[in-house]
Amino acid sequence: MRPLNADKRPTPDTRSGEVGVLPVSSGRFISGLSNRLMRKAKAHLQGKGKWIYGLPVVAAAFVGLTAFSFFDDGSSNDGVSSNSMMSAVGFPIRSLIVNGSNEVAAQDVEFTLASQLQGSMFTFDTDMARETLLQNPWLKSAFVRKVYPDTIAIDVVERQPFAFWKASDAITVIARDGVVLGEASPEHLKFPQVVGQGANLVASEFMSVISRFPEIGKRASGFVRVAHRRWDIVFRNGIKVLLPEEGWQEALADLDKMQEQKSILEREIVQIDMRLPDRLVLRLDEQIAQERRDRLEKILKRSWHRT
After folding, report:
1. CA within 13 Å, CB half, 278
2. Contacts from 80-83 at CB under 8 Å and sequence distance 24+?
3. Using one digit for the tens of pLDDT, what is the confidence trace for 256-276?
4. What are the contacts of 240-249 at 24+ separation with CB within 8 A?
5. What separation in angstroms does the CA of 12 have from each of 5, 91, 123, 133, 173?
6. Which residues contact 253 (CB under 8 A, 6 or more apart)?
7. Within 13 Å of residue 81, how many CA atoms lie on the same side as its CB?
8. Cβ(24)–Cβ(78) under 8 Å?
9. Which residues in the chain show pLDDT less than 50?
10. pLDDT value at position 291?
């Protein structure tokens, strides 16, 4: 359980107001009367066999409180509100419990809900709190409940980092559903790298197919989305494989087979074009290609002299 501002009194925060439970600073007559009514009710309820006599006192306290809240339009000079009244009679929010959080700290949740946590248990809106929390992209879902007498409990499910995505000059970390979680950091370099506009929206499907071919996956350094239509794979040794728009799953299976049988990804080539359905186009490194042309020319010259 995390108490709100357990280690210090509430102090103004310039970001969005005070965090925690604010003390009631006005409406002394009404709040004092309510406090006296509640103390009297508790005294009656503590005695064995006398609980029935405390009911009228409790009822009177709530009737008075409800009447005050009804007539108060929030525009009085002394600033008394229904929230402060509820807190004054013994129903402030004192504790916040956050379960399931890792990337989002409990302190961040407290700061996000600061203005709502200043009220009372009765006026705290769980649906509004949930909507507020889900504005954080790290949170996939949130369940907010009240645990009386003074605790708000929140169960969250976070999105998990899936890949880091480069589009234009921005490098961000994304979840499996394509939601941008925030700026990428060095710790995210262990995740796959996807590049190109719209790559974040289709990366999950593509990477699930890649996972069927571990030899390709471990050699690849990045996956590039081209014109929202197809993928290129860039390998660590510089080879680029151009996959077709249609039938790219079958092309990956063919590439994996060629690697297994012929070690094609270890050859002195720079590009494998698989976009044509009836042929494979290989492009050699320019220097290697020139050396091969020179060797072929020498062979042809020797053959010509013999004739």
Report:
1. 0
2. 80/26, 80/27, 80/30, 80/31, 82/120, 82/123, 83/118, 83/119, 83/120, 83/123
3. 999 999 999 998 899 999 999
4. 240/270, 240/271, 240/272, 241/271, 241/272, 241/274, 242/271, 242/272, 242/273, 242/274, 242/275, 243/274, 243/275, 244/274, 244/275, 244/276, 244/277, 245/275, 247/277, 249/209
5. 12, 22, 22, 22, 34
6. 213
7. 13
8. no
9. 1, 5-34, 37, 41, 45, 48-54, 57-58, 60-61, 63-80, 88
10. 65
Q: List pLDDT tens digits, range 149-181.
A: 999 999 999 999 999 999 988 899 999 999 999
Closest C-alpha to 183, from 164, 196, 198, 200 = 164
At 156, which helix (H) or strand (E)? strand 151-158
| Alpha helix stretches (DSSP H) within 186-285 | 199-210, 214-219, 248-262
Under 8 Å between Cβ of 163 and 13: no
pTM beyond cutoff 0.85? no
CA nearest 191: which of 220, 228, 226, 163? 163
Residues in the chain: 307
Q: For the chain, where are the alpha helices, taking DSSP H only? A: 28-46, 51-71, 82-88, 106-112, 114-117, 126-133, 199-210, 214-219, 248-262, 286-306
Please provide residue 193's backbone torsions phi and psi, each rounded to the nearest 5 degrees. Answer: -105, 125
Q: Cα-Cα-Cα-Cα dihedral of 46, 47, 49, 51, to 10°?
A: -40
Instruction: Give the C-alpha separation, 94 to 153, whole Å.
Output: 11
Residue with tokens 């006599």: 53
